[in-house]
Amino acid sequence: MASITAKYKLFFFTPLHALEPCKTAIFAAGAGRYPGGNYTECCWTVSGKGQFRPRDTANPHIGSVGTLEHTEEARVEAICFGEDVAREAVAALKSAHPYEEPSYGVVKLEDF
What we know:
Oligomer: single chain
Strand content: 25-35%
Largest sheet: 4 strands, antiparallel
Helix content: 10-25%
Protein name: ATP phosphoribosyltransferase
Distance between the termini: 16 Å
CATH topology: Alpha-Beta Plaits
Number of helices: 2
Structural class: alpha+beta
Order of helices and strands: EHEEHE
Shape: elongated
Radius of gyration: 16 Å
CATH class: Alpha Beta
């Protein structure tokens, strides 16, 4: 029986001005690439509105300490084949993302 590579879904939120640099970074780390190489740079993106209030010790990229901020953001989802790819994509995202604390998640997918 052939071994099946574990699949993960990486999702993250980013301000619109940082969308392309963040996608470029995760794709360079291998996210959004299907085995065999027939499809690369695959993702799903949707726009929405995020909000946050920076506290006293924060160093916000957007907004001011103590003020509730609303900003247009994008949610991006991309598949990662292999835990190593998922981890490298997260590291790349953290390096490219402008926020002090990027909002992201990684979910292990089951193959039915």
